[in-house]
Amino acid sequence: MRAALQRRLLVWFAQHRRSLPWRNSRDPYRIWVSEVMLQQTTTAAVIPYYERFLATFPTVEALAQAEEEDVLRLWQGLGYYRRARHLHAAARTLVQHHGGRLPDDPDLWRSLPGVGRYICAAVLSQAFDRPLPIVEANSLRVLARLYGYRGDPRQGAGQRWVWRAAQALLPTQRVGDFNQALMELGSLVCTPRQPRCAECPWQRWCRARQLGEQERIPPPASRPVPVEVQELAVLIRRGSRWLLCQRPATANRWPRLWEVPHAEIATANDARAQLPEVVRQLTALEVQAGQPLTTLCHSVTRFRIHLHAWSARYLRGTFASSFYTAAVWVTPQELDRFPLSSPQRRLLEKQAAKAVNLKLGET
39 or 280: whose pLDDT is higher? Predict the structure, then answer.
């Protein structure tokens, strides 16, 4: 059975594999970058970022020599910026202590920032054919259904079971292709809802299909009830320029990214009245509250954040802050120079577009 499963999956993969820019490469650096980007991000979203990133940093040496702010600027929009910082830090470690080599050495890889069991196995199996299994959302779903495993393979005993199952199923050759094929099968055929069992190369052996339990194996992941958070963001204008502030490296969210000043508030009902004091506490500047601009909603871990954006006019004062590490006055055309979080980028791009349309209307 094991040999048949391996053979059928690899034949299916040869016929149905998607053409992706990081495939057909045994370069561990390119594989590493792709796998880091693909964590918690869709393949379609990653492709343009991957191509821009490799065009700018084609080698581990180029990435190691870059400034962190340049790395973050290319990463903005992908989210989970800690991935980019770990990638950058690991590149510097490889260059400084290992001559820029990316060897077939699991112990070395696991010692790098941001490299856990999955990344280590993904790089080494694809670049060097090392017999290490990969377990992620797609492959664990395929394996749970194949063997009819009714527990939760994401945690505890279930997680230990699925890694053992993945290891036991590995072929002795083409390990990288097999790992990719397993993930591809889960992405294209063995989907979370309405799996296309008739197209599956493993349909003959699939226990969940035999039991009619495809939709219930594995059980859905439990999701915590989101905590609603209200925040006030202030776009401070000084002539044609806006104030951008840099978050500290120790911030829980978006460390060292740039943003307009914002803070959590109890309620948005009296945002205008709160605005001058919020700005004073964050920047020591005196401002005059303007008009509401927009409200953006986004999720961060278990928090659902409602970002209420207002305009304000600079009156007087010199920037000083016990939170932000730096501040600059920029024109809307200069925003591309600064790495911004996704909600801040959405906010500022929207206001920049309005400013351009307003200027065009005046001419």
Answer: 280
143-154 average pLDDT score? 95
Segment 63-111, tens digit of pLDDT:
999 999 999 999 988 888 899 999 999 999 999 999 999 999 999 999 9
The domains of the chain are located at 2-211, 227-362
- Total residue count of the chain as it appears in this document: 363
C-alpha dihedral sign at 151, 154, 157, 159 = positive
Q: Is the pLDDT of residue 56 over 50?
A: yes
Question: Which residues have a catalytic role annotated?
Answer: 35
pLDDT value of residue 361: 45
- Domain 2-211 is classified in which CATH homologous superfamily? Hypothetical protein; domain 2 (1.10.340.30)
On the question of pLDDT at 147 being above 60, the answer is: yes
Domain at 227-362, CATH class: alpha beta
Task: State the pLDDT at residue 276.
Answer: 95
